[in-house]
Amino acid sequence: MLTEAGVPVVLLLFCSVLGRHAVLGETTNVLFIVVDDLRPELQVYGYPRVRSSNIAGFAKTATLFRSAYCQFPLCAPSRTSFLTGRRPATTKVFDLTTYFRDVPGMEDAVTLPQFFKNQGYTVSGAGKIFHQGSSSGDNDPISWTEPYYLSPNKGKFGGTSISWQARDEDVLEFPDAQIATHTIEQLRSLKDDKFFIAMGLHKPHLPFVFPSEYLDWYSGNIPLANHTDATEGLPDLAWSYYNELRAYGDIEELDLPVTPGNWMPAYKARQMRRAYWAATSFIDAQIGRVLVELDALGLAETTAVVIASDHGFHLGDLGEWCKQTNFEPSNRVVLLVRDPSLPQSRDLVVNENVELLDVYPSLVEMTGHSVPEYLEGKSLKPLMQEPGFVPPLWHNASFSQTHSQHARSVMGFTVRTTGWRYTEWVAFDNSAGEPLWHDLRGTELYDHRNDAKDVFGGHEEVNLADKSGYEELRSQLRLLLHSQSAITPVPPV
Questions:
Q1: Annotated catalytic sites, by residue?
Q2: Which residue among 140, 194, 220, 476 is least enclosed by CB atoms within 10 Å?
Q3: pTM above the 0.90 mark?
Q4: What is the pLDDT of residues 30-51, one digit of tens each?
């Protein structure tokens, strides 16, 4: 429901109750919100076209991380990484089927929700937190104290006949609306307990399905991506042919080539972008419902809140769709964190590179617990305490990786620093889960020194790896990439 000015009523309610409960206190609870396939194309990230007023309202009370990156641009590997606090090199989860507890050395891993369970919290989960199915042992039952909630309508609007649908069913028939409703019920039920509540929203994951009213928010001429051509000088192994999208009937019938290039017809690209944005606005509304309830219950001043996506998503940027590339649109994520005990962290923007891996130690520290030594990320709390402050030994670097879709025996490893993205495609021993760094199959180098992060796919149009004049830089970045650590003796680039 909108006001005459076009502002969602839920946002006005949220801002109103926030003012009423603005007293800061000790952070004792956690609300952890994970959104599937959500790229940082939101109002608060500088994209006013994509209506997301509830997240924008939340950002005024939180810290927004403009340069946050996943560790693997695929659901199960990414979620396993940030929920265990370990890099993919440790979890050995590189696909959608491997369960981390079946990996030698990971059997007794303590997940993020399990950590809080062990501290005596009531721990509740709903929707998609872990990647569901075999890769999580059906939502990793040991991690929760409460019965895990799955929408009774999960799968109702699925299928692969068409890649998007605007539906006329009542909003509460949609799985993500039901997940939000359950989360609200959990907040009411657990308001007098110490709690860790996790809400995982499925959209805007394919297929893009949403209530039809949201499609009306995006009428007129829908722009194409700013950079739709394939990257110049791209190694063949680096190209993703977005087989996830090609599985849908309306895309399959287009018979698109599988070689690098901008093959999606403009009319279909506009349809897809419009539907993705509509699904994003629908999800924003569900997040708004939960945030309003959190504050109405008087819990905002004692609850740390994280809103994060599990990886990015291409919408025609660089000729690519979906994820599983080592480009910026696939790896850059949404990340907002609110610590009510830090008034200076309200309405703060942090530009330093951070990783989803950092969420686990951050929540542990925010709630007054000692950060376990087994975690491979670093707490974000120091960046939230003083604008512009960067802790000693903090390398402004984030690491991601993904298999080549052309050869499962090749893995692409990428490091993003303040000014550069450097990628190596190397032979990969899948049985051992180890890269063979000496067996180099391709390299990429992109100049991001003037990247304002206002254009998806910008600054990655030309591969500079084979250009002269970059030899010393490539050597430094190679050393940093091979370290696979954001806190090392390696000098930052």
A1: 75, 131
A2: 220
A3: yes
A4: 999 999 999 999 999 999 999 9
